[in-house]
Specification:
The chain is mainly beta. The protein has one helix spanning 96-104, and strands spanning 3-6, 16-25, 32-39, 45-51, 77-82. It starts with a strand and ends with a helix. It binds zinc ion.
Length: 105
């Protein structure tokens, strides 16, 4: 099953596994696809723009994480993920231990 590992822009899960649930081949950009990803932690959807790097396997048929090579050497490059992951805003003048907790989530 095709998947992609990334921080979730909704639930802030670190290295969440997204399932590839849909795909659309870009009509004007060679090798470009829009891919619907579903977060395994919260179930929200995100869209990634990926390049198939010239291999002919659609993202839905990729057997692993999109960034890992399949049995034919095909691999996808993720060009962008939308919405973008929002980093928490850290209030000023916090003790270092509290500020570190904000950064780590
Ligand atoms: Zn999530």
């Amino acid at each position: 099953m095709a998947s992609y590992t990334h921080d979730c822009p909704y639930c802030a899960a670190k290295n969440s596994t997204f399932t590839v649930a849909g795909e659309h081949k870009h009509l004007a950009k060679a090798h470009a696809w829009s891919v619907l990803l579903i977060c395994g932690s919260c179930g929200n959807g995100a869209v990634a723009e990926v390049s198939d790097n010239g291999n002919r396997t659609p993202p839905l048929k990729h057997p692993h994480d999109l960034t890992l090579r399949d049995q034919h050497g095909g691999v996808f490059t993720v060009l962008g993920l939308y919405p973008r992951v929002q980093l928490p805003s850290i209030p000023e003048h916090l003790p270092d231990t509290v500020a570190k907790a904000f950064r780590e989530g």
